[in-house]
Amino acid sequence: MKLILLGPPGAGKGTQAQELERRHHLIQLSTGDMLRATIASGSELGKEVKGIVESGALVPDEIMIRMISERIAQPDCNNGFILDGFPRTTAQAEALDKMLSEKGLKLDHVIEMSVDADVLAHRIGGRYSCAKCGAGYHDEFQKPGVDGLCDHCGSQEFSRRADDKPETVKARLEAYEKQTAPLLPYYRERGQLRSVDAMASIEDVTQEIERIVAVG
Ligand code: ADP
Ligand code: ZN
Fold this sequence. Notes:
Radius of gyration: 17 Å
Number of strands: 8
Shape: globular
Distance between the termini: 8 Å
Low-confidence stretches: none
Strand order of the largest sheet: 2-3-1-4-8
Strand content: 15-25%
Bound molecules: adenosine-5'-diphosphate, zinc ion
């Protein structure tokens, strides 16, 4: 199963992707994490990406696509994957479709997570994750079972993203509206778009997504 989760920052993409990984043995492909891993690998591509990132420039679409293409060819992606954070622009969506069709692959569903703008700041403001295993938490909506201990790996170290500060959140929401929201009609026209009400509780959103993926 090949899925895209689409929605503004804070919509709950990462949270639901972790749930989908567990339930369906899919691999969550967060392009931000992939870039960091590619750089750390020291490969030719990694060196190229490192230079671009360190210069402060955006990584070109062609490199992002190459990175995703290499990643989904690895055996752990045999069951499928969830793209979270990519594509962000219509040009990236087109490039992704082209790359997949060259491999004889097609996306199964593009799931839009829709949410009101005013709740996003609150969700982003309270989020943090386990520094060791990456499991996501929230000060109010998703606390660990035991205070200060990760449910999944028992670590006591947590971290918050540097770009989750109120000043940067506003700019990220604006960038989403401007660049990424136009992807909704792109996938709607292709009959691939499914929407879920991401204002609901984490459990209810999971159930809605389960109903979509159950159809196959
Ligand atoms: P995204 O990956 O779309 O940016 P996250 O999955 O990181 O969003 O969710 C942002 C924050 O909101 C996290 O702290 C998460 O625990 C919390 N959250 C996610 N989904 C919900 C929900 N349906 N209701 C309340 N809080 C949620
Ligand atoms: Zn952990």
